[in-house]
Amino acid sequence: MNPKQNKTILVVDDEEHILELIRFNLEKEGYDVLLCENGDECIPMIQNNKVDLVVLDLMLPGMDGIQICKKLNRMDEYENLPIIMLTAKSEETDRVLGLELGADDYITKPFSVRELIARIRAVLRRSESKQDSSRYENKEKSIVVKDLIIDVEEHTVSIDGVYVELTLKEFELLKMLSENRGKVLSRNLLLDEIWGYEYFGETRTVDVHIRHLRRKIGDDKSNEYIETIRGIGYKMK
């Protein structure tokens, strides 16, 4: 069964054969597809079209994928735009940085078209689920854990009255751990809930985000808030 119609995927890559390969297969699956070969043209194309997801190569002429992620992350109307990065295996550092900047998933070249389509479906489902829940859920109050205050409505975090700047994924991780305080949450569960992975689980993504989250809330040495449960996952104390 084809996915819901009228979902538009923007594919940004400077290799023409990759663009055509992805377009052919996505159109066969029922998606509308836009193509872009230059990083400088990516954001104007997003602004001029209704784009539901971006497949973004990291290495591009003009603005590169990391710069694009940073710019979109600073734009309120696009900070939640789903992004799947295309990376080379040697670009691990950039890949991790892209995830920290809000990218939802990544796939390494050379890639399986079937895997890419599966990941696109999963990320879109996760995005739709978030939109539906935010549309209908009642306004939630702040979550307080010791000196940590998480304002769910405003998406802000403070410790002792000092604002802490978190990425979207870091905020969602902290919120989920706080809402389930005292419960052990496995890495795979966190992946599924925060990133929408339903297969090909990359648990290192969770570890990287937890490490950066701990540092930002001053928990990297004291372990006052988040506890690592060896071989399983994490819990909020």
UniProtKB/TrEMBL annotation:
Keywords: DNA-binding, Phosphoprotein, Transcription, Transcription regulation, Two-component regulatory system. The modification 4-aspartylphosphate is found at residue 57. The keyword Transcription regulation applies. Residues 140-237 bind DNA. Gene3D superfamilies: 3.40.50.2300, 6.10.250.690, Winged helix-like DNA-binding domain superfamily/Winged helix DNA-binding domain (1.10.10.10). Residues 140-237 form the OmpR/PhoB-type domain. One of its GO terms (molecular function) is phosphorelay response regulator activity. The keyword Phosphoprotein applies. It comes from the Bacteria. GO terms for cellular component: cytosol; protein-DNA complex. Residues 8-124 form the Response regulatory domain. It holds the Pfam family Response_reg. One of its GO terms (biological process) is regulation of DNA-templated transcription. SMART domains: REC, Trans_reg_C. May play the central regulatory role in sporulation. It may be an element of the effector pathway responsible for the activation of sporulation genes in response to nutritional stress. Spo0A may act in concert with spo0H (a sigma factor) to control the expression of some genes that are critical to the sporulation process. This is Stage 0 sporulation protein A homolog. It comes from Alkaliphilus oremlandii (strain OhILAs) (Clostridium oremlandii (strain OhILAs)).
